[in-house]
Design a protein that fits this description.
The complex is a heterodimer of chains A (about 100) and B (about 375). Chain A is mainly β. Chain A has no helices and 5 strands. Helices cover about 0% and strands about 35% of the residues of chain A. In chain A, strand 2 (about 55-60) and strand 3 (about 65-70) form a beta hairpin. The chains are: A mainly beta (about 100), B alpha/beta (about 375).
């Protein structure tokens, strides 16, 4: 089984775990939109002010669904199952649509 | 095994006030439960109780009476009431006490809860980037459920519509103004696909029960209600919970499914026997999913059941007859025991305008909460 972020013990059995590199391509498993500015702290609003943003879980072939902010401006385009490219950042993981793939 | 009876049930007014403290709510509810049982505080052998955010239950003795009884504080998130109840049952069955009080109370500030990442073992980035918001989880869980099982947004609205309709019939509820499905759908998205009026709000209130061994029951002035089972479970591997940076692939486990199955097994009752139930409705999607997770229907059947009014007070499985969390608000420590108070009233035939017809004999309650706890009870008369 695979977890995110990497941990040195398995959450199911407590045995030692080893790191793997996850795929960057996956599919959107579920999602929602954060419509209002979360309470600050802990939220840090972007310099140009809060705008509603999407977030969801990206299902990866390694058998893990990873929470990510979705960098998709047109919220109407978001669909369960849409192909996404996810990457780790200094914040939470971020994912964007893979262009040209349906 | 000793039968445990609910001898008294009491609620404080639910809602939001300027000045009433959570502790004051608790004293009110305990006194109401004692009066309902026809006893006084010095007759109580032991007490268990707690709140999530409104103080320590054992300090209530200052107002209730310094009788020297053992009073144990319980703090178990949404299962606080359920855990206090299980402790009370065990105190009776273990021979520690014959008459026991369980109390849950709370008072939360206006608006969404604002937990900190460090308290959840998460990197600060989850707070900084805006992912420490509980409503996101509820939106994402029901979104996937709707996709997998064909549940429509209208069904979510009908659940909330029922909550306000039932709340209007309940003098103790907070939200008592009926609202139709179209208004609920148009009330603005909070966490898609859930709109503003599909959610409960953090609020304030208290609920208390007097429990006793069947052998200690004084005079059966009202219909005796038996607590057939009370079960608390924490999540197993593979569940989908609030504030999870990841979920495992494949089929997911459910703590609600585990707790409900254990409660039915311990009671020797099947979901099909239940005639009135209270299910955690943090938002209307939760009620839909919990109908299946508790065993009352298959996944996806809710779409037809709710449209055919099966979960209304006059339906085949009345759900959240007092308006649930949506109409009563969510004082975390109190909600689980509020549900039991409502089932007790229904089984006694004392629920007034919201009484389930046909003299129900079997009731069920269910709470679910972070970080993956569930408490369920089965009650009969």
């Amino acid at each position: 089984m695979t977890v995110y972020p990497a941990d040195d013990v398995c959450p199911r059995c407590g045995q030692a775990a080893s790191p793997v590199t996850l795929s960057s391509a996956g599919e959107l498993w579920t999602w929602t939109v954060q419509r209002f500015a979360p309470k600050s702290p802990p939220f840090v609003s972007p310099p140009d002010g809060f705008r509603p943003f999407a977030l969801g879980y990206v299902e990866l072939p390694e058998g893990v669904r990873v929470a990510a902010v979705l960098d998709i401006d047109d919220l109407d385009l978001i669909r369960i199952g849409m192909p996404l490219r996810i990457e780790a950042t200094t914040g939470v993981p971020r994912a964007k649509a893979i262009e040209g793939v349906r | 095994m000793t039968d445990v009876l609910i001898a008294g049930a009491g609620l404080s007014p639910f809602g939001r006030t300027e000045h009433t403290t959570g502790r004051r709510h608790a004293v009110y509810a305990v006194k109401a439960a004692l009066a309902d049982a026809g006893i006084t505080w010095p007759q109580v052998d032991a007490a268990f109780g707690g709140s999530d955010a409104a103080g320590l239950a054992d300090t209530l003795v200052t107002q209730l009476g310094l009788t020297g009884l053992p009073f144990v504080n319980v703090k178990n998130g949404c299962a606080t009431g359920g855990s206090a109840l299980v402790s009370a049952v065990n105190a009776i069955r273990g021979g520690m006490a014959e008459v026991v009080v369980a109390v849950g109370f709370d008072k939360h500030p206006r608006g969404a809860f604002d937990p900190l990442p460090a308290d959840w073992g998460l990197d600060e980035a989850y707070g900084r980037d805006g992912l420490m918001v509980t409503t996101q989880f509820f939106g994402m869980k029901i979104r996937r459920y709707m996709y997998d099982h064909g549940i429509s947004s209208r069904t979510l609205a009908l659940v909330a519509e029922k909550a306000y309709r039932n709340g209007a019939l309940n003098p103790n509820a907070w939200r008592r103004t009926p609202m139709d499905a179209d208004q609920i759908l148009a009330s603005g998205m909070v966490s898609d696909p859930l709109t503003r009026y599909m959610f409960c709000s953090p609020g304030e209130g208290a609920a208390a029960l007097v429990l006793c061994a069947a052998s200690a029951a004084r005079k059966p002035t009202s219909v005796p209600v038996t607590l057939r089972s009370a079960v608390v479970r924490s999540r197993r591997f593979g569940s989908f919970e609030v504030f999870s940076p990841w979920i495992t692939g494949g089929e997911l486990s459910s703590v609600t499914r585990d707790a409900a199955a254990a409660a039915f097994e311990a009671a020797g009752v099947a979901p099909g026997d239940v005639e009135v139930c209270q299910l955690q409705d943090t938002e209307s999607g939760a009620e839909v999913m919990h109908m299946a997770e508790c065993g009352f229907c298959e996944d996806g059947e809710q779409e037809k059941l709710i449209a055919s009014r099966a979960t209304e007070i006059g339906g085949s499985l009345p759900v959240n007859t007092d308006g649930g969390c949506i109409a009563n608000g969510e004082p975390i420590g109190a909600s689980g025991l509020r549900q039991i108070c409502e089932v007790v009233r229904q089984l006694r035939g004392q629920a007034g305008d919201r009484q389930v017809p046909g003299r129900p004999r079997v009731g069920f309650t269910h709470v679910y909460g972070a970080p993956g706890v569930s408490a369920c009870t089965v009650l009969t008369r």
